[in-house]
Design brief:
Layout (H helix, E strand, L loop, with lengths): L6 H10 L8 E6 L2 E6 L13 E3 L4 E9 L2 H10 L9 H12 L3 H4 L2 E9 L4 E6 L8 E4 L8 E4 L2 H6 L10
Antiparallel strand pairs: 1-2, 3-4, 4-5, 5-6, 7-8
Helix pairs in contact: 2-3
Length: 170
C-alpha cells in the first residue's frame, strides 16, 4: 500500500510463499495498492479464485483462512438481498464486509487474515481473527505523512522485498 505499481515486487512476494498455495494465484493492482494471493483450495475448488471482487468490482479481497459459519452468514446475507456467484467462503467474507462493514469481522467464527481494498473510498482494511491463528505481518516503510505498507502471511515475505531490513525494531 502506498507504493507505485510494481508487479515484479508482488511476484517476488508470492514466490517466497509458494508453498502456501499450489491451487492458484492472482494479482490485483490499482494505483497505490497491490495485492497478491496464492490459493490452497478447500471450498468451491473451481470458483474460489482470488483476488475476488464485489460491488461492481469496487471491493477486492485476498483472504487466508476459513470462516466456519459461512453457510449461516450466507443465508442471512441472501435474506438481506445479497447475491452470490460462487459457493466459496471467500465470497461470503467479502459480501459480509460489503453489507456490514468492519462489524462483519465480529460475526466470523473461524481463523482468517485478510485484506480488502475499497476502490471508491481508496481505503485498505487489514484484519485477522481475534486469536491471531492466521498470521498477518505488516510494516510501514514510508513515513507518518506518506505511509508505505507491506504486509504478508510470513515475515520472510517482507524481507524478500529488500525494502525491510532484518533487524530488531525496539
Amino acid at each position: 500500500f502506498g507504493l507505485p505499481e510494481d508487479k515484479k515486487l508482488l511476484e517476488t512476494m508470492n514466490t517466497t510463499q509458494a508453498h502456501r498455495g499450489p491451487d492458484g494465484h492472482g494479482v490485483f493492482m490499482h494505483g497505490p495498492v497491490g495485492l497478491a494471493h496464492l490459493r490452497l483450495a478447500f471450498i468451491d475448488r473451481e470458483h474460489g479464485q482470488q483476488p475476488i471482487y464485489a460491488n461492481n468490482e469496487n471491493l477486492v479481497l485476498i483472504y487466508n483462512g476459513e470462516v466456519y459459519n459461512f453457510r449461516e452468514l450466507r443465508e442471512e446475507l441472501e435474506t438481506a438481498g445479497r447475491e452470490f456467484e460462487t459457493n466459496s467462503d471467500s465470497e461470503v467474507v467479502l459480501q459480509a464486509y460489503a453489507h456490514w462493514g468492519t462489524d462483519a469481522f465480529d460475526r466470523f467464527n473461524g481463523m482468517f487474515a485478510l485484506a480488502i481494498y475499497d476502490k471508491k473510498k481508496e481505503q485498505l482494511v487489514l484484519a485477522r481473527d481475534h486469536f491471531g491463528i492466521k498470521p498477518l505481518y505488516y510494516t510501514n516503510i514510508g513515513s507518518a505523512q506518506k505511509p508505505q505498507m507491506l504486509f504478508a502471511s510470513e515475515i520472510k515475505t517482507l524481507l524478500a522485498t529488500k525494502k525491510v531490513e532484518a533487524k530488531p525494531n525496539d
